[in-house]
Amino acid sequence: MPTPAAAIATRAYAPLPPSGKWKDDADTHRPVSILSTLGAVVGYDRNAEIYGEDASAEHVYVVLSGAVRICKLLGDGRRQIEAFCLPGDVFGWEASGRHRFSAESVCDTKVVRIKRSMLFARASDDAELSHALWSLTVAELHRAQNHLLVLGRKNAQERVATFLVDIAARSGASTDEVLLPMSRQDIADYLGLTIETVSRTLTHLEERGAIALPSSRRVVLRDRNALRQLNS
Amino acid sequence: MPTPAAAIATRAYAPLPPSGKWKDDADTHRPVSILSTLGAVVGYDRNAEIYGEDASAEHVYVVLSGAVRICKLLGDGRRQIEAFCLPGDVFGWEASGRHRFSAESVCDTKVVRIKRSMLFARASDDAELSHALWSLTVAELHRAQNHLLVLGRKNAQERVATFLVDIAARSGASTDEVLLPMSRQDIADYLGLTIETVSRTLTHLEERGAIALPSSRRVVLRDRNALRQLNS
DNA sequence: CGGCGTTTTGATGTATATCAATGCCAGTGG
DNA sequence: CCACTGGCATTGATATACATCAAAACGCCG
After folding, report:
1. Which of B145, B154, B228, B230 to mutate to test the interface with A (most CBs of A within 10 A)?
2. Residue A56 lies in a domain
3. Domain match, A39 and A12 both
4. Predicted pLDDT of residue A31
5. Does residue A178 sit in the same domain as residue A224?
6. What is the pLDDT of residues B195-221, one digit of tens each?
7. pLDDT given at position A1
8. How far off is chain B from A151, nearest CA to CA, in Å?
9. Is there a domain that residue A199 lies in?
10. With 90 as the cut, is the pLDDT of residue A7 above it?
């Protein structure tokens, strides 16, 4: 199951030379609008490090456009992506003063960067803000808990199907076509699989007629019922 | 990987006839003391349901003694335990008004049950309480995120070792002997393994000299370095 | 067109699941 | 006090989903 030894060498996890590509969206859809006004917009190229594991936690971030992966490395190079953050998502919460994961842009990405100290200062006499912070954190907890179920008890097909449905819902696409900002390796590390298994599973879902793959980063959800069935 | 079809029939997940057994501890160790004063103590027998999936969320709970499992069932009977809550832990947070998991006592258990409405009312003009709620939620998020790494990228030995070290640390035992309140099935459903694999892995760790098993519920951590090594 | 990073496909291996006994207590009743 | 029972836990034999290793194929950019 694990990826052994020299994995770091062959799998380029470290932020790569950027070569941007992805669409802007530029507007938040969710009740994080309160936050978005409290910080400055920052842009990142593809595969840039936003912060590293153990970095001191100075800011909280709201995604405006693009996508961010939150991840953790094991000593031997195995990587787990805890979450993908899409426009409207918030990341960077920490109880201690240090980040326990790293955050990297998946593609060209814009975020609002908010000083934690400022945020907490305001929250201490703004009950509404304070409640907003809490409920955003709860939302993230819920996402993590759902993902636990996926990683603990679902097989490859179910994992991929769940992933596709989730991304489709969150990217708020009105059509059935989803654009995946992340690579197969990212998906694999998110779903606790290997890149080969992700690829094979996608082609298998295509053969079953559940999806279509006009290109590797574009997925059409053909049979949502079939996919939903793989969700529980 | 998945447990198919008739699993529900053979694996008795539904709350069983109680037949209590486990030690009291009766005092909170953690900075939840603020909360403990805000609700009433409630006791549960072994394997009692504290709340079910989709139940409306009226309360938040603090564990005083015993242990609680937070879990979710898949349609076909596969179960994932999201967390074990030990004395001092808080559970029952929800953003919506419904519980998204069920909570069951693992053994005889005492909790403080606090009305959510009351808690939030107070929090809205008590910045300290409000911050406490938030940081408890963040702590739980962190726990879930750590667990994601375990489920996504660790093998059976690493999972079990991580589990033992974690439980030992959290149960605050001064010695190297840990008393496990939960069954092998519970451990398996927490670690995303089967009961057989958990059992085999434990005996394997014993053969390696990393642990000793004087009885099935008692584990002695003999070689913490070996165990820690399996942690990263 | 040529090269490089990524994805797909194929052949094989292995960790863990599954199926099936057997063993171990703790509690119960004769 | 001892046989009997019913939950758990352990152990063994076998199956399988996914990982691993290796090689094409694709797509993009220079």
Report:
1. B145
2. yes
3. yes
4. 56
5. yes
6. 999 999 999 999 999 999 999 999 999
7. 38
8. 6
9. yes
10. no
Q: Within this chain, do residues A23 and A38 fall inside the same structural domain, yes or no?
A: yes
Q: Which domain holds residue A129?
A: 7-152
Distance B19 CA to C28 C1' (A): 14
Size of interface A-B (CB pairs under 8 A): 124
- The nucleotide whose C1' lies nearest the CA of A200 is C8
Residue A129: what residue type?
A: L
Note the pLDDT tens digit of each residue in A51-106: 999 999 999 999 999 999 999 999 999 999 999 999 999 999 888 889 999 999 99
Whichever domain contains A193, its CATH number is: 1.10.10.10
B188: closest chain A residue by CA: A152
- Domains held by chain B: number: 2
Cα–Cα distance between B52 and B54 in angstroms, integer? 6
Q: Report how far residue B186's alpha carbon sits from residue B193's, in angstroms, rounded to the nearest whole number.
A: 10
Nearest-Cα distance to chain B for A80, in Å, is 6
B16 CA – C21 C1', rounded, Å: 26
Tokens 């999972």 sit on residue: B159
The sheet that has B40-44: what strands, in order across it?
Answer: B40-44, B109-115, B59-65, B90-91
Measured between alpha carbons, how far is B57 from B67 in angstroms, rounded to an integer?
Answer: 20
What phi and psi, each to the nearest 5 degrees, are found at residue A91?
A: -145, 165
Q: Is residue A115 part of a domain?
A: yes
